[in-house]
Design goal:
This protein is an alpha/beta fold. It has two domains: 2-209, Spore Coat Polysaccharide Biosynthesis Protein SpsA, Chain A, CATH 3.90.550; 217-333, no CATH class. Helix content is 56%, strand content 12%. The protein contains ten helices and seven strands. The protein has helices spanning 14-22, 42-46, 63-77, 95-107, 125-142, 158-164, 173-185, 214-270, 277-305, 310-333, and strands spanning 2-8, 28-35, 53-57, 83-86, 112-117, 154-157, 189-194. The protein has a seven-stranded mixed β-sheet, sandwiched between helices. Helix 2 links the parallel strand 2 (28-35) and strand 3. The radius of gyration is 25 Å and the shape is elongated.
């Protein structure tokens, strides 16, 4: 038996239309969570078919809270349920796309299956930009490529239900946390392409693609802190040695001194990589040599050709190095290639 879970906050009659279609699917239980929508929306929920399992509570918990409430209900009261599909109530997920996720989930036991949008056609800018940015940072932070980090159409088995119940988050950040947990726990993530549907420029959505993805962006913040610590070590040593050795030698020695600190922080705190120590050191050393060449050449250019103050030249150079290092370290230095 399979179940579909739909968290609903202030839905319209599209929820009723979707659940009626889902009830035509063999061996599928439909569970709807009324996430504190209020009295104005009682008519919508009362129009649901009697076969729909309706969970309701008076105060809005947020999407994460509604999802965990529904998952707990299914896990405890439907012991024969082998897998669960979550979908949204706002009309963005069609019955054919939901069936595709069900079929893929059956085909890939133990995996988290995502119904991922292609983001083609007339897509609101905030949705396209927010998902694109989150997708890139998620790939760097976890080493896992996911085309649609914000999709609510997902499928997983009974083990996934148990695991995802413990994931923190009560609102939209819960879905991001589930992806982070799955990626770092080694749970396979598969995607099937679904239609990209936005109704009235997605005005009904309560999701903020930037604010609600802050958990992923914390990786950039930690990398920035790591880089800043290394920057302080590098810049202080460079300033001390500059008067004695000149820009080239002082830059090389300062860079080498800060590299070991940067390697340790990035490997253990920022990326939490799965690469073995020796291969990671070799990759990091090669990257350091390449970056050192770029770094030194840029410092020399700024000071000797553009006549820039040596401290300002160093600051500009470090910013350029930061932009280069973040994606390269996250994707190649601290990640093993997956089979």
């Amino acid at each position: 038996m399979n179940a579909i879970l739909i968290p609903a906050y202030k839905p319209d009659m599209r929820l009723v239309e979707l659940t009626n279609l889902l009830l035509t699917h063999d061996d599928l239980q439909v569970v709807v969570v009324d996430d504190g929508s209020g009295d104005k929306f009682k008519e919508v929920f009362s129009s649901l078919d009697k076969r729909v399992h309706l969970i309701t509570y008076p105060v809005n918990k947020g999407k994460g809270g509604a999802l965990k409430t529904g998952i707990r209900y299914i896990f405890d009261s439907m012991p024969d349920c082998e897998r669960l599909i979550t979908a949204d109530a706002d009309g963005q997920h069609t019955y054919p796309d939901i069936k595709k996720v069900i079929e893929k989930s059956i085909e890939c036991p133990g995996a988290l299956v995502l119904g991922s949008r292609a983001f083609d056609g007339n897509v609101p800018f905030r949705s396209k930009f927010g998902n694109g940015l989150t997708r890139q940072v998620f790939s760097i932070a976890t080493g896992v490529k996911v085309r649609d980090t914000q999709t609510g159409l997902r499928g997983f088995d009974r083990e996934g239900m148990k695991a995802f119940l413990d994931v923190p988050g009560e609102r939209y950040e819960y879905e991001i946390n589930v992806l982070l947990m799955a990626a770092r726990a080694g749970i396979p993530i598969h995607e099937v392409t679904i239609k990209t549907i936005y109704i009235n420029e997605n005005e009904s959505s309560h999701f903020n693609p930037i604010k609600d993805s802050l958990k992923i962006y914390m990786c950039i913040f930690k990398f920035a802190c790591s880089s800043f610590v290394s920057f302080l070590i590098d810049t202080i040593l460079f300033s001390i040695l500059f008067g004695f050795l000149g820009e080239v030698a002082s830059n090389i020695l300062a860079r080498l001194a800060s590299a070991s600190v940067n390697f340790t922080l990035n490997r253990r705190v920022v990326f939490k990589g799965n690469e073995e120590t020796i291969p990671a050191i070799i990759k990091y050393a090669l990257l350091t040599v390449c970056v050192l060449c770029v770094d030194t050449a840029l410092v020399y250019l700024l000071i000797n050709v553009l006549n820039m103050n040596h401290i300002l030249a160093k600051i500009i150079t470090e910013f350029v190095v930061f932009l280069i290092n973040f994606p390269i370290q996250g994707k190649f230095v601290f990640r093993k290639k997956k089979a």
